[in-house]
From TrEMBL:
EC code: 3.2.1.8
Residues of the active site: 626
The keyword Signal belongs to this UniProt entry's keyword annotation: yes
Record's signal peptide: 1-30
Protein name (database record): Beta-xylanase
Positions of the SLH domain: 1309-1372, 1374-1433, 1436-1491
Provenance organism: Paenibacillus xanthanilyticus
Length: 1491
């Protein structure tokens, strides 16, 4: 009832499974007479594990405000079936053997009176009666609370289970509601530890499942299948493990560990995990829930496969004493479906006590006071932060709070029944804000993750298909949710994150492809804002008892759209376009929430402030909503204790950020907007002891906040409050090797990144450095608009003392420019300096300012690169350290335009070969040799990657075998991405992923797998510059390698950048110089030498293939070539056979200018052979694959030589206008076979030719690629759909098979039917199959999707979709299928191929409606006949009606389910139901889509 995507399993189920329920162990403090181990007052809204006794009658445990002994809440046990309905609590992990306890609780009747006692089950070998009464009979009334109390109750030795329940005495027959409150258990055992760190249960937990029982484990959501399995095992000498079928992300097995972990104690949690057979690699982790909505990931995200056990492990310190405490193993990523996995040998081990919080410092400035003139300072909280020392710290420094999880939609509502919604923890946080006069930010009303999924699903739990009816339903549910939730907090919430994370800059339209967007477009955003504003402005309508103050607060509340990475220029601009468009349409958006999850180096402060300024200038308020500053800048470093040097760097990062935020807020102050551009800065936690960043993405401690795990001020705090108290920490940098022979004007400076000084007022500087064996060269570009005589740049270098060079403005070495000046100087460096040596160095820039009339006389400033005090002439403490690095990597990129098809065109011979050689991760692994070219539009890259084992097992794209290209088009060499900087990733399967400026539509790719690796070819749009000869482009080539295929990246090899930060920092990228002519000798094309027969034909091995390239002549617009039998036989001799014994020879006819057709002459004997090989003719007009038996049994087979002609075809004049429009300007390919001057009529049903035509779809077509079809144009100008025609996104070609030659046109078909709105889930399938002539409507306008389909019609669909043909007629045709029937040929072919065996007595019953189980049987047999067998070993256990499937259909049904062709409905297969026409279309499309 109160579970969310990130919540524990139902506590009700937990108790039923004998899991000790959630309860509040009373802050673990020492009581005067002992240790309080359980205290329940139900004020947090949690039932605390109370549930009906498993063997008792029915009843429900809920939290209510109807009665309360103390406070406002109590437990209510309602809907009692009889007096035998008993509320119970599992205390197995609370009441320890041989301990002594005081136990008390209060009980009250809902009406009338009765007599009750506290009964128990104590399972101990020391007891004969295992069901003793703990507390005897007492009268219970509806007028007052009755206290049940037991003193010094001793638990017997060896207790395995402890339950208590409230039980009616004999004679009490009432089934009235029971109320329970103030449950208290105190451990009064002498020497029990008094609640001090190190006390309590230290026995831990171990589970190996060898006893066969669940050992307390249950499914996290309470419903997923979970069982002890003998199918796999990790335990040495064991035979069992725990198998869970996790239905979705965040689900898995859960164990209640309340009582097994104590506050301020550290524990190690570990388990072994393995995927069930056939399951894909899955990212899994261990997590802990410590509170109703508080979660910590304990182990790192780990990829688990089905071929090996993997250990997950991590350490966890319990920071609070929660009411709910669960350990669980969860699926970390969203895979869109269930994942089954085993765990075994789970352990929870006590490691020891840790130091708790120190007293909160009261002698330091309060953050909220320091920033009172600027913006509120907030913190994210959950109940654990609202008590004890955390509460004291919170109230001292923060004046605003936000719920970290408890107000997210899925924390509040799991279904549409608002009576079951969980407001407990959200109410507590809101009440805390009310009681302490804190601003409350409401986070969030709508989110695609941790959202209220029920709003998006139908009655069967499936996501709605997008149509107007479903859209209206979803938006109505959203409005209803807002109507209930918003009024509840309208008196206290001053800011609402109405929608969260709707932008995805990697998509063409910039919108996240969530279910919300899929179903409603952007109307969910419009509705959420409009409805929230309406409710707030009409609060009294929704809350009649609202006070005047509440109404005023509601009307003044602000509405925000919240997102992360808003500093990213591309994402920022998509978000800006969205909010300005919505604002113009009247949508009431008040501001933008910038989450601001950053680290100690990136992104740049400039990017953050640019984004805020952009929205501020457009009239939007800005709030920093989730600030944290990680101490990590990569995914590999890990510390259990964060080093001081990182904390100091973090302090300066906080300083830079808050200096900029204050300045920006002041910049936005006007008479119309006196509050400035920023109204709130919320830090995503109170102190470092609770942060979502710990153990992400690997096991490590992070420390992102101003206060430490012991609640003490860190350097981050002083960076916000008083930077003079920060330790003086010199910066570090690197300097590249090079000699600027032309001084400040030398082109070498374009290859060098800049070091930036701080900025004070309008004064700042960029410092570029180079070095050689003798000197350090400095070029300092100063921004200082006012010229004064005392303006100067000073350079400081340690070299046998301090060398100082001063370049005064206007003197030699200084050059004036727009808005400032440039200073240039050189300093001798220590003798023997070499790559890797360090120089101690700093730069100081002084601005004497102007006389502004103040008592100071001048308003000058001083900035430095390293020393924050600018005290370089006093001491060298603040000097920075420069590491001498090698010269920048520079290469020339040749001019040319290759075809991006994964084939090395002749044009590539003019490009120099480069290679990776810098190991960023690992020391060996996959490497690449690559070339680059450019033209007026694109940068081209062709690469051959050596990689022995190809893997895409990881869910993280960067951990798959892939290449990443980083392009800095303006060669800005910045420490964070600018608008032109892009990250282009391509894995070996040609799957693209992007970052920065890169998008799915601004680069084209092709890949090929070859022996020992793969090939990548790409064209990247140079769309932010005008490329020209001499242009410099920042560039990096990176190879990612999963060496062992386990889903973890094992090595990274780069061309130029050793930092591993190319994905966010372009300062260390190499440089490509665009050149018209090549200046270096190209390397080898790779792999094998070339054999050149006397005829001039070249035979060579390329990319693992044998390629034959004959001489080509062009005449009258046609390029022609001839190949002899000797050349082709030599090529076949060199070719290796594949696993099926077949060979492939590529015949390459390079593109020829002015050629509109390509002809190749071949010996007919080699196309009339029983041998197993194919010839792949590759031309610019298209690629044609010819089987060795192409001419067998045809007249053409008698010819000596045949010529295959491939060219541009024409659309016949007689074609209908509507069809002509659907072809438009799309390619038409002509295929002919000739012998001499005679065209041969080739037609061979037994040997199909495969054709691939290059085609670039429009953006509209890419939205519906299934509508791209191939039409055969016959001699009369009539078109016939080609069933196999389809667009292949990987190769960028339209592909089809044919058994006869003619003209073939690519068309875009919009064929549809007017009644498909009745089956929107089948619409795309119906249209795709109808466009190919596989399926027809009942009329031209109607499809009748709900009608049953006959047996004959379904068989005909299978035959057409799979292009099945029989060599001969069936021996005994079905008696009820006549030659005159329109389906005769299809049914006869199916019978001859063994697909259709009839219903008995040689009958087929063709007109009878086909059942779903017969459909499954016929489909499986058809796929087998087509050479596409289905996977074996599948099961139907997940379907409730699996037992209803006929025996003859079970195997076929299971195989189709495993293949994903049959999915069932609402957990059922409905085997005996008639198959509808809509269902048939979906099944047939799935079959057709199999390659």
């Amino acid at each position: 009832m109160r579970s969310s995507i990130k919540k524990a399993a139902s506590l009700l189920l937990a108790a039923a499974l004998l899991l000790p329920g959630g309860w509040a162990p009373a802050k673990a403090q020492a009581a005067e007479d002992g240790t309080v181990v359980l205290k329940q007052d139900f004020e947090d809204g949690a039932t605390g594990g109370w549930a009906k006794l498993s063997w008792g009658k029915a009843g429900d445990a809920v939290v209510t405000t109807e009665q309360a002994s103390d406070g406002t809440h109590a437990l209510k046990f309602t809907n009692r079936e009889s007096s035998d309905s008993k509320p119970s609590l599992n205390l197995t992990n609370v009441l320890l053997s041989d301990h002594v306890y005081d136990i008390s609780l209060k009980v009250r009747h809902g009406e009338s009176t009765g007599t009750y006692h506290i009964a128990s089950k104590i399972d101990s070998p020391a007891l004969e009666n295992k069901y003793p009464w703990i507390i005897g009979n007492k009268p219970v009334t509806a007028d007052a609370w009755t206290t049940f109390e037991a003193k010094a109750y001793e638990m017997p030795s060896g207790t395995k289970e402890a339950l208590i329940w409230v039980e009616a005495a004999d004679g009490t027959t009432s089934s009235a509601d029971l109320y329970i409150d103030e449950v208290l258990i105190v451990d009064v055992t002498p020497g029990s530890g008094g609640g001090q760190p190190g006390g309590g249960d230290q026995s831990g937990v171990a589970a190996d499942f060898e006893t066969g029982g669940l050992q307390g484990w249950g499914a996290r959501n309470g419903t997923d299948p979970i069982e002890v399995s003998s199918a796999d095992n990790h335990t040495a000498g064991g035979s069992k493990s725990l198998l869970t079928a996790a239905s979705e992300q965040y689900q898995g097995p859960l164990l209640n560990v309340l009582g097994k972990m104590q506050k301020n104690s550290k524990y190690r949690l570990s388990t072994w995990a393995k995927m069930a057979p056939g399951q894909e690699a899955t990212v899994i982790r261990i997590s802990v829930q410590h509170g109703d909505n508080t979660f910590t990931n304990v182990s790192a995200n780990t990829t688990v496969t089905d071929d090996a056990w993997v250990q997950l492990s991590g350490d966890f310190t319990l920071p609070n004493t929660p009411s709910v405490l669960n350990a669980y193993v969860e699926v970390a990523n969203n895979y869109g479906g269930p994942r089954s996995f085993y765990i075994d040998d789970f352990k929870l081990e006590y490691l020891g006590a840790v130091e708790g919080p120190l007293p909160v410092q009261t002698d330091i400035p309060q953050l909220k006071t320091v920033y009172d003139d600027y913006f509120e300072i907030g913190a994210a909280v959950e109940p654990a932060q609202l008590e004890g020392s955390h509460e004291e710290l919170l109230l001292r420094h923060y004046n605003s709070i936000v719920a970290e999880n408890s107000m997210k939609p899925d924390s509040i509502s799991k279904n549409s029944d608002s009576a079951t919604w969980n407001f407990g923890t959200a109410d507590n946080i809101a009440n805390y804000a009310r009681e302490n006069n804190l601003t409350l930010r409401f986070h969030t009303l709508l989110w695609h993750s941790q959202g209220a999924e029920w709003m998006l699903k139908d009655a069967q739990g499936q996501y709605f298909e997008p149509n107007e009816t479903n859209k209206a339903t979803v938006l109505k549910r959203l409005s209803d949710y807002i109507d209930i939730v918003v009024p509840r907090y309208a008196d206290v919430a001053k800011a609402y994150d109405v929608v969260n994370e709707v932008i995805d800059e990697g998509r063409p339209d910039g919108m996240r492809d969530s279910q919300w967007y899929r179903i409603t477009g952007d109307d969910f955003i419009r509705t959420a804002f409009t409805r929230t504003r309406y409710v707030l402005d009409h609060l009294q309508t929704f809350k009649p008892d609202a006070s005047a103050a509440a109404i005023a607060n509601a009307e003044s509340a602000k509405l925000y759209i919240n997102d992360y990475s808003t500093h990213n220029p591309k994402k920022r601009d998509f978000l800006f376009d969205l909010v300005t468009r919505l604002k113009e349409d009247g949508v009431p958006i008040d501001g933008v929430g910038h989450q601001t999850h950053i680290n100690i180096t990136g992104p740049s402060i400039q990017q953050i402030t640019d984004s805020i300024r952009k929205f501020g200038e457009a009239g939007f308020d800005n709030q920093i909503t989730e600030l944290d500053v990680s101490v990590y800048t990569n995914n590999t470093d890990a510390y259990t204790t964060v080093p001081d040097n990182l904390l100091n760097k973090q302090g300066y990062r906080y300083k830079e950020l808050f200096d900029a935020l204050r300045k920006l807020d002041n910049e936005g102050r006007t008479a119309q907007n006196p509050g400035g551009w920023i109204s709130n800065v919320t830090i995503w936690g109170v102190a470092d002891d609770h942060t979502w960043l710990t153990n992400r993405p690997i096991t490590r401690q992070d420390a992102p906040f101003p206060f430490s795990t012991r609640l003490q001020a860190k350097p981050a705090y002083w960076g916000m409050v008083d930077p003079t108290k920060l330790p003086v920490v010199g910066k570090v940098g690197s300097v590249l090797q090079g000699t600027p022979a032309q001084g400040a004007a030398d082109a070498a400076w374009q290859l060098v990144p800049a070091l930036a000084t701080e900025e004070v007022g309008t004064l700042s500087a960029d410092v570029k450095l180079l070095w050689d064996n003798e000197k350090l060269y400095a070029k300092v570009a100063v921004k200082d608009t006012y010229i004064a005589a005392d303006d100067a740049v000073e350079l400081f270098l340690q070299n046998n003392g301090t060398q100082t060079v001063k370049i005064a403005r206007g003197s030699q070495g200084a050059t004036e420019g727009t808005g400032g000046y440039t200073a240039y100087a050189a300093l001798p460096i220590p003798a023997g300096s070499a790559i890797g040596s360090q120089l101690v160095f700093d730069v100081r820039v002084s601005d004497s300012g102007v006389n502004d009339g103040s008592e100071q006389g001048r308003n000058g400033a001083i900035v430095s690169w390293s020393d924050p005090r600018s005290a370089q002439d006093t001491d060298a403490i603040g000097y920075g350290k420069l590491t001498l690095a090698a010269a920048p990597k520079v290469a020339e990129s040749a001019f040319g335009t290759p075809q991006v098809d994964g084939v090395m065109d002749a044009a590539w011979n003019n490009a120099a070969e480069l290679s990776t050689g810098i190991w960023v991760e690992g020391t060996s692994g996959a490497t690449a040799k690559f070339r680059t070219m450019w033209d007026a539009d694109n940068l081209y890259v062709y690469a051959v990657i050596t990689d022995a084992k190809l893997s895409d097992a990881s869910d993280n794209a960067y951990e798959e075998d892939s290449v990443e290209l980083f392009v800095d088009q303006n060669n800005g060499k910045t420490e964070s991405y600018e608008e032109d900087d892009g990250q282009y990733r391509i894995n070996f399967n040609n799957v693209k992923s992007v970052g920065g400026h890169a998008s799915q539509d601004n680069y084209v790719t092709a890949t090929k797998t070859i022996e020992g690796g793969y090939i990548v070819e790409t064209a990247i749009a140079l769309d932010t510059i005008t490329p020209a000869n001499g242009t410099l482009v920042g560039f990096e080539f990176q190879v990612n390698n999963d060496e062992d295929g386990d889903g973890d990246r094992d090595s990274v090899a780069n061309w130029a950048d050793p930092s591993g930060s190319s994905y966010m920092n372009t300062s260390k990228l190499g440089v490509l110089r665009l050149a018209k002519a090549q200046t270096s000798t190209p390397g080898p094309s790779g792999g094998g030498g070339a054999a050149v027969p006397p005829s001039g034909t070249k035979i060579e091995r390329k990319d693992g293939q044998i390629v034959v390239t004959p001489p080509v002549q062009t005449k009258d617009g046609r390029a022609s070539a001839a190949l002899s039998a000797d050349s082709l036989n030599e090529a076949l001799k060199q070719a290796a056979a594949n696993s099926q014994g077949g060979k492939q020879i590529v015949i390459d006819l390079p593109a020829q200018s002015n050629a509109n057709g390509y002809d190749v002459q071949l010996p007919a004997s080699l196309l009339n052979s029983a041998s197993n090989y194919v010839f792949v003719l590759r031309t610019a007009a298209g690629t044609v694959t010819l089987p060795s038996n192409m001419l067998a049994g045809t007249k053409a087979g008698s010819s000596e030589l045949v010529t295959l002609r491939v060219g541009t075809g024409t659309v016949a004049s007689g074609i209908a206008e509507s069809e002509r429009e659907q072809i438009g300007a799309r390619p038409v390919i002509s295929l002919e076979l000739a012998s001499g001057d005679k065209t041969l009529d080739w037609n061979n049903p037994a040997a199909s030719v495969e054709v691939a035509v290059p085609y670039k779809p429009t953006s509209e077509e890419l939205q519906h690629p299934e509508r791209i079809v191939v039409w055969h144009i016959n001699g009369e100008g009539q078109v016939e759909p080609v069933a196999s025609g389809r667009y292949d996104t990987v190769s960028g070609t339209v592909q089809f098979r044919t058994t006869h030659f003619s003209n073939y046109a690519i068309a875009y078909s919009t064929k549809t039917f007017g009644d498909l709105q009745a089956a929107p889930w089948a619409k795309a399938a119906v249209e795709a199959m109808a466009a190919r002539g596989i399926i027809n409507g009942v009329t031209d306008e109607a499809f009748a999707p709900a009608n049953a389909i006959s047996r004959a019609d379904f068989v005909a669909l299978l035959v057409r979709a799979l292009e099945l043909k029989a060599d001969a007629a069936p021996a005994a045709p079905f008696a009820d299928v006549k030659p005159s029937d329109y389906y005769y040929e299809a049914v006869a072919a199916a019978q001859a191929l063994g697909i259709a065996s009839g219903t008995g007595q040689n009958r087929f019953r063709p007109e009878q409606a086909i059942t779903r189980q017969d459909m499954m049987t016929l489909t499986a047999l058809a796929l087998k006949a087509a050479g596409k067998p289905l996977p074996a070993g599948a099961s139907l256990e997940s379907f409730a009606d699996a037992g209803s499937v006929a025996g003859y259909a079970k195997e076929s049904a299971a195989a189709l389910v495993k293949a994903g062709i049959v999915k069932g409905s609402a957990g059922q297969l409905r085997p005996a139901a008639a198959l509808t026409r809509a269902e048939a279309a979906v099944i047939v499309q799935a079959v057709w889509a199999l390659r």
